[in-house]
Amino acid sequence: MNITPQKRVLIIDDDEGLTEPLQMAMEAAGYEVFIAHDGNEGLMKIERDAPDLVLLDLVMPRRSGFAVLDSITNYKQRAPRVIMVTGNSEPKYRELALDRGVDLFVAKPYHIEDLVKAVNKLLKPE
Fold it and tell me: Where would I find the H helices in 32-111?
């Protein structure tokens, strides 16, 4: 019997109004979900919980999304996939994020179903 381990998704966003419905949608899609409300907590959970993918806000207290992203790309072990999700959709931020290695840049507001599809695509079995 071949049992595929559940993929892990970490949501790093300080807006609880967004994290809660996103967590419910990701869990409904079959993912194990963790939440962090600032960049420092997010980095701690990346180390501890080894997510397969991180949904990362850009503007947060204590450590910005770019600072978290820089730490992730220097991660010693297997780095998770990263989708940057932000209300700041200026082209320069998109370029900076893509240059720093994000897999996808998504502007808020977004449709949760579209974000779930993007996660599914990035985490599909190899």
Answer: 39-49, 65-73, 91-99
